[in-house]
Design a protein that fits this description.
The protein is built from seven helices and five strands; from the N terminus they run βααβββαβαααα. By secondary structure, it is mainly alpha-helical. The protein has one domain. A three-stranded mixed β-sheet has the order 1-2-5. Strands 3-4 form a two-stranded antiparallel ribbon. β3 and β4 form a beta hairpin. α1 packs across α6.
């Protein structure tokens, strides 16, 4: 028997759980990752949700452990990471720079606004000290583009 009732839209997805350093990682992401599974997951979250049309409305929840991006990471160890000390330093630095606390919830558009307000081009050498991706320059380039954009976050999401 088929349902002849009105079509309803599916409920909006749950908040994306992000540890603090992943806010800037999402800005700098350019399709590269630690493994094929990690890269596919990162692409699904960043490109498929945050940078998709309407992605500025996606809700993010700050957590202090492995998050929705960490799931398939080859370095994941339970709720932590084999590089736990380095990740803890990155999370602490990013949490301070972006004024984030575990349990905070904000939209991707609000996160981008906070990044523009609190992290200037050139700050990544300090905020991201120790990150293996920093040397590639793509994060600094993406941060500069975020600052240069005059459009609203929703328009920026669609343009990427």
């Amino acid at each position: 028997m088929s349902d002849t009732g009105p079509t309803t839209r599916p409920a909006r997805s749950a908040a994306i759980r992000f540890r603090p350093h992943h806010f800037l990682c999402a800005v700098g992401y350019r399709g590269k990752g630690y493994s094929p599974d990690f890269t596919a997951n990162m692409t699904a979250v960043v490109m498929g949700r945050l940078r998709a049309p309407g992605g500025g409305g996606e809700m993010l929840e700050v957590i202090a452990a492995a998050d929705d991006l960490c799931g398939p990471c080859p370095s994941r160890e339970g709720a932590g990471c084999v590089s736990g000390a380095k990740i803890a330093r990155l999370d602490a630095s990013h949490a301070q720079a972006l004024d984030l606390l575990p349990g905070d919830r904000l939209s991707w558009a609000a996160a981008q606004a906070r990044i523009r307000e609190r992290v200037m081009p050139g700050d990544l050498a300090r905020v991201c000290a120790g990150c293996s991706w920093l040397a590639y320059g793509m994060c600094e380039e993406a941060l500069a583009a975020l600052h240069a954009a005059e459009a609203e976050p929703e328009t920026q999401d669609a343009a990427r």
